[in-house]
Amino acid sequence: MRYYQLVREKSKMNFNLRYQLVKEGQENGISEASRKFGTTRKTVRKWVRRYEEKGFAGLEEESRAPKTIPHKMKAEDEARVEEVRLQLKCKWGARKLKDRFKLNGGLSAIHRVIKQKGLMKPKRKKHRKRKDLSALKKKLGLCKRIR
Description:
Blueprint: H1 3-8, H2 14-28, H3 30-37, H4 41-54, H5 75-87, H6 94-101, H7 107-116, H8 129-140
Helix pairs in contact: 2-3, 2-4, 3-4
C-alpha cells in the first residue's frame, strides 16, 4: 500500500510509518525511501527535516488551521453583539442589529455570533404528514386489495 493511502485512512500507524520513512531516508537515501514507500522525494525530505529539527514530536500531525484569521471579529465586538441581542425582547436579526446599534463586523459575522452563542430560536420543523399517514395506513391495513 502506498504512503498517501495509509495516511489518508487516518490509521493509528501514521507515527510508526513516518518513523520508518525517516529511518529509510537517512540510511538508504531520499530517492530509495520514496520508491519503497511510494511517495515523493519532497514528502520524505519534509519528514526527515521535521524529525531532525524536533525529534519524535516532529513526526506528529501538525494543525492545519490558519495561524491568524484577518477577518475574524474581535472578542469585544462579539460580546457587544451578544449583549445587544440579550437586551432585546424582540429577537432582531443581524441586519437590524447592525443598522440600529452600529455594530462592527459584517452581517454574516454577526449572524454567526448569534448562532454560536445559542441566541436563536430553533428552526421550526415541518410536519411530516405523508410519513405519518403511510404509517397509519400500514397499521390499520387500509388500501389493501379486497378480493
